[in-house]
Amino acid sequence: MIRLVLVGGGHAHLHVVERIADSRARGDGRWDGVEVVLVSAYPVHHYSGMLPGYLQGRYREEELRFNLQALARAAGIRFREGWVDRVEVFGGGGGAAGVGPHATSASGTQPAGQVHLDGESIPFHLASLDVGSVAGGTAVPGVREHTIALRPTSRAVELARRLEGLQRRPGPVEAVVVGAGAAGFEVVLAVAERLSRAGSSRESSQGRVTLVEAGPEILPEFSERVRRRGLAELGRWGVEVQTSTRVSRVEEDGVRVEGPHGESRLPSHLTVWVAGAAPSPLLAASDLPLARSGFFQVNGALQAADDTPVWGAGDCIELAGFPWMPRAGVYAVRQAPVLADNLEMAVEVLRSGGGSERPPRTYTPQTSFLSLLNTGGGRALLRWKGVVALGRWPWWLKDWIDRRFMTRYHGLEKLGMEVGPDPAGAGERGE
Ligand SMILES: Cc1cc2nc3c(=O)[nH]c(=O)nc-3n(C[C@H](O)[C@H](O)[C@H](O)COP(=O)(O)OP(=O)(O)OC[C@H]3O[C@@H](n4cnc5c(N)ncnc54)[C@H](O)[C@@H]3O)c2cc1C
């Protein structure tokens, strides 16, 4: 029996799960004799594209939630809830197990390594990582204790609850969002919209929502035209923008900042930390090749750069030759079919005990993508190549794309709920 362990239920692995479900439903035999285990920190995952809409109150939580356990069940995959803290590769990595897509080793029945979680281990012949990233900049004192960081995205549920509580709170409400990249921009607008409904907006003249950014401008990854429109939207919702401003400390009820005019303190009932992405500590603790950035270094086939039989996709990787690749869900989604193809090929190689006739599929990141930023109030800001548009129709387009994406998985989830317990009686904590 070959065992493939999928670590993390991120966007790319959802597609792999779907592919396995399709294959098993068709009975094409591609995944016969393969035990697939999906290990993820939580039994559910949330689609980040719909997070701002959820925070605004436009979507219910279940509309952006993936039930990983049910999806796994639909694909005949064993689900295991837990935090993986190390991926051990026997022989210390470097392709020692000889099971890469081109390998000709007959050692296929020997596990190549094991995944460690919660004091236990799961041996694997093949593994794949899609664990996303963690919040960056958390070394600033007080960040861990007093902010809500939106990585993993499931923390949005906690943020929505806090917003609900603040909406009911009498008197003016102050909120600070740190980080003015695309995610921080959308989140601050969602916070402002949500709080405005409770009368804590600029109209009350005392409530205040502030966006703090260390760099000189908001939306640094966008053009000047997009930034101008973005600033206008922030103004529309009464968000105060402080650029070239660094957070030096976060306290329970405020944020200390150092800006162009010296030090100051922003009172805050709610501080949200969206200041970039950092590598998961799991990566440094594992026997995997790392890029200088600390992310998992993979080659064009999305396999470990040293040919270890571990693949990766999404935020957790750095693709050789493309260190600029943004950490955005759209990249994880585009990598997914390449990852699925190459995992299928690796299974085939292991099964036959020989090499592969065809080369693995390679992934090349697109240099531009359709960007739709939810600006609140049923509007969105669209950027597509040279086109910039703001208003209602970009929101309708975004809503349609996002709902279509979720519908795909919700159908499979329903199937998983109908088929009964997980294979091997799992889906629980503990093997
Ligand atoms: C507020 C916000 C809005 C965003 N909006 C967009 C957008 O509109 N479009 C876009 O393209 N990108 C957006 N992004 C970025 C996007 O969320 C990420 O790029 C994307 O989620 C990365 O997908 P992934 O598959 O790498 O991992 P993730 O989606 O982060 O999934 C990782 C999974 O792995 C699990 N996991 C993590 N560590 C472990 C571990 N050690 N053991 C076991 N399981 C683990 C997690 O629980 C999670 O289920 C947004 C981000 C934020 C914060």
Describe the structure.
- This protein is α/β, with parallel strands linked by helices.
- It folds into 2 domains: 2-41 and 82-133 and 279-367, FAD/NAD(P)-binding domain (3-Layer(bba) Sandwich), CATH 3.50.50.60; 136-275, FAD/NAD(P)-binding domain.
- Helix content is 30%, strand content 26%.
- The chain is built from 10 helices and 25 strands.
- The protein has helices at residues 11-26, 51-56, 68-74, 143-146, 156-168, 182-196, 224-236, 281-284, 329-352, 392-418; strands at residues 2-7, 34-40, 44-46, 65-67, 78-81, 84-89, 113-117, 120-124, 126-129, 134-135, 148-149, 174-178, 208-212, 239-242, 246-251, 254-259, 262-267, 270-273, 277-278, 296-298, 310-312, 317-319, 371-376, 379-384, 387-391.
- Strands 5-2-1-9-21 form a 5-stranded parallel beta sheet, covered by helices on one side. Strands 11-18-12-13-14 form a 5-stranded parallel beta sheet.
- Helix 1 (11-26) links the parallel strand 1 (2-7) and strand 2.
- Helix 1 runs parallel beside helix 3 and helix 3 crosses helix 10.
- The longest helix is centred in the C-terminal third of the chain and has 27 residues, at 392-418.
- The chain is globular.
- Mean pLDDT is 90; it is low at 95-108, 200-205 and 424-431.
- The chain binds flavin-adenine dinucleotide.
- Residues 7-12, 39-42, 45, 48-49, 51, 83-84, 130-132, 150-153, 183, 186-187, 274, 280, 282, 314-316, 327-330, 332 line the site of flavin-adenine dinucleotide.
- Flavin-adenine dinucleotide (FAD) binds next to helix 1, strand 2, helix 6 and helix 9.
